[in-house]
Design a protein that fits this description.
Length: 286
């Protein structure tokens, strides 16, 4: 799809900035769109909660990467988080169906699993978690991402020719976000949102590469992918961490030990050709 016109919603946010740069470096004609422009690349000011604005900015586009969202339940009321994220995703899919835009990539989240911001504790069904594991969200943010994927399934029934990808990002690290990691590795706070993501991470450059590769994945249908590095950022053994925070009897693959991630991202490697390139500290993975 190099040379094609691609709309990036949430273009001026953390993943958005890296994604716009990644696409431009690979020859795409990018239309950045954001409600709060902060970058010097001529961002279109668009409120993705408004269908008319979404249709307007999507006209003439070949594909959309939808990153605009409230990224956690921490700073807005639950109804605002849920309503904003769900209606903006619906509007992108509705506009795509109206305009005949076939290729849509959606930013989902590991939070769709339900562990990161849960109200009531519960254990995974098995480890490592893969895309076959059920989504069991309880909170407004996780539910908004879970519903976003359900919306993609619904629009696929409406337009079976669409190519829809949901990328389940975990904790996304750039230089600013990496500042808390040294302490988290040695003197962890062990708050629920941290261990609810199973200590997984992805470098923002790898997240951007996943967006580009999802764009280039042209199979009709809807596929979801976990996007995370193959290791955790903690120094502790993953089995000890799971036993402490998720005690109980559930199947654990014997290969899961040491620093191995309890979330399996191999589907993204098989179908998208994506593989994490950077470690928690930003250095290349060996």
């Amino acid at each position: 799809m190099s040379g094609k016109k691609v709309l990036v919603s949430g273009s001026d946010g953390r993943i958005g900035r890296a994604t716009v740069a990644e696409l431009q470096a690979h020859g795409y004609a990018v239309t950045p769109a954001d409600l709060n422009p902060r970058q010097p690349w001529g961002t279109q000011v668009v409120d993705f909660r408004d269908l008319g604005q979404v249709i307007g900015v999507m006209q003439g586009q070949d594909a959309v990467i939808h990153l605009a969202a409230i990224p956690s339940p921490d700073h807005h009321s639950a109804d605002v988080v849920f309503r904003t994220n769900v209606i903006s995703t619906f509007n992108v899919l509705e506009a795509a169906a109206i305009l005949g835009v076939r290729n849509i990539t959606l930013a989902s989240s590991i939070s769709a699993l339900g562990y990161a911001f849960r109200h009531r504790p519960f254990n995974p069904h098995y480890l490592p978690i893969d895309e076959a594991h059920p989504l069991l969200s309880q909170d407004c943010y996780g539910l908004s991402k879970m519903i976003g994927e359900a919306l993609a399934d619904g629009f696929l029934r409406r337009a079976p020719e669409m190519s829809l990808v949901s990328l389940r990002f975990t904790a996304v690290l750039d230089e600013a976000a990496r500042s808390w990691l040294p302490a988290a590795r040695q003197e962890p706070t062990d708050d629920a949102s941290t261990y609810g993501a199973f200590w997984t991470f992805v470098d923002v450059r790898d997240a951007a590469a996943a967006c580009r590769l999802a764009l280039e994945y042209d199979g009709a249908g809807h596929e979801a992918f976990y996007i995370c590095a193959p290791t955790i950022y903690r120094e502790d053994d993953i089995r000890a961490l799971m036993a402490k925070h998720f005690p109980g009897d559930y199947p654990i693959d014997k290969a899961l030990r040491g620093s191995s991630s309890p979330v399996d991202a191999s589907k993204a490697e098989r179908l998208l050709g994506w593989r994490a390139r950077y470690d928690w500290d930003g250095s290349p993975l060996t």
